Sequence to fold (148 residues):
Amino acid sequence: MQIKQEEKRYNRTIDKFMEKKHLNVVCAVVHDGDKILCTQRLRKGPIYIAEHWEFPGGKVKEGESDYEALRRELLEEMDWNVYVGAKLCSIEHEYPDFTIRLTAYDCMAHDNDFKLLAHIDSCWLKPEEFSKLKWTEADAALIKQLWK
Fold:
């Protein structure tokens, strides 16, 4: 009897450990004329996202709205104030160790005077030029949704 209880407890612990973390992430589609800001991730984290390109943004904290999170993330990672506009779309993507809900917002900046505090590089590209970059899988799915 005791062994069965221990086995059940062990299985619950394993199941909990094996559950994938779910992240709610927001990103900014910032326009400068017909070009859009693209940022390159740092060389840290899982290999399938490290140094890949993405739209700037980050995780939504508990109790925080998407708008608040996006403004906070761009201030923290780029020292940049932006106007967060309309929601463009959301996608869900499953990575090996987590799932992500990525929501894009149309954003405007008062200027292009930002700092790369959490990225390696940035560039402004037209959507038809996006294929030049190696995007995270989630951002690539978002691009397909936005520019069908």
Notes: The chain has one domain: 32-146. Residues 29 and 106 are 5 Å apart (CA to CA).
